[in-house]
Amino acid sequence: DAGVTQSPTHLIKTRGQQVTLRCSPKSGHDTVSWYQQALGQGPQFIFQYYEEEERQRGNFPDRFSGHQFPNYSSELNVNALLLGDSALYLCASSGARVLKETQYFGPGTRLLVL
Amino acid sequence: DQQVKQNSPSLSVQEGRISILNCDYTNSMFDYFLWYKKYPAEGPTFLISISSIKDKNEDGRFTVFLNKSAKHLSLHIVPSQPGDSAVYFCAAREITSGTYKYIFGTGTRLKVLA
Question: What are the 10-residue block averages of pLDDT along chain A, 114 residues in total?
Fold first, then answer.
């Protein structure tokens, strides 16, 4: 049973560029949430996708956008990168049908903006 | 305005002894709580959860206690092992309009000394 997978594992970009991160949820899961974890902080909720729609959004600017595909995989896009966007980006999957299903995390993508 | 707080950034415990990690929250509408363990360069790994209708949940060496009146939960690890050395995050679930998100604390770094 494959867990949550993310790609790439590491990424280096320069300010102003755009980046796309990818996530495949755990088998049987249909909900994908994205988090940003800055150094020394806990994961901060960016947004959640279910049925190819954004269901909830945290306190992040519109530069952060996402997409969910019919196979439940998801992408996180960040435009006009800032130095402060350097962080570990985590994807977590869960099942929406059973509300008590917990979230399982992928290994993350470490983004460095220079 | 941090709704989930882990006030101890670090904790050192001798192998074989009990580790107690604490978490406080402010939102009485949180209905589900999770503990995650995170090793460097990995995503958070789910450890144990507790519903707000319970006050204790146990899984092997891990026990989570919830005190709703104090808005406090704790994770007990007995006996502590060197492999338990990691950063531990507590997370609380908030349900809004039929959707949910998790809010994380800033983490406590546990070091178990051999």
Answer: 90 97 93 93 94 92 97 97 97 73 89 97
Q: Per the structure, how many domains does chain B have?
A: 1
CB < 8 Å from A in window 21-80 of B: 32, 34, 36, 41-46, 49, 51
Provide the number of structural domains found in chain A. Answer: 1
Give the domain range for residue B41. 4-113
Dihedral sign, CA of B82, B59, B103, B20? negative
**The two three-digit tokens of residue B70, written as one number:** 């104090």
| CATH code of B83's domain | 2.60.40.10
- For residues B98 and B12, the model is more confident at B12
What six digits make up the tokens of A60?
Answer: 């992040």
Q: Which residue in B48, B39, B42 sits closest to B109, CA to CA?
A: B39
Which among A100, A103, A108 is the nearest to B102, CB-wise? A103
Chain B residues close to A45, C-beta within 8 Å: 101-104
Judge: A4–B100 Cβ closer than 8 Å, yes or no: no
The pLDDT value given to residue B100: 83
What angle (nearest 5°) sits at the alpha carbon of residue A96, between those of residues A66 and B30? Answer: 95
Given this model, what pLDDT does residue A99 score?
A: 53
Q: Which domain holds residue A102?
A: 5-113
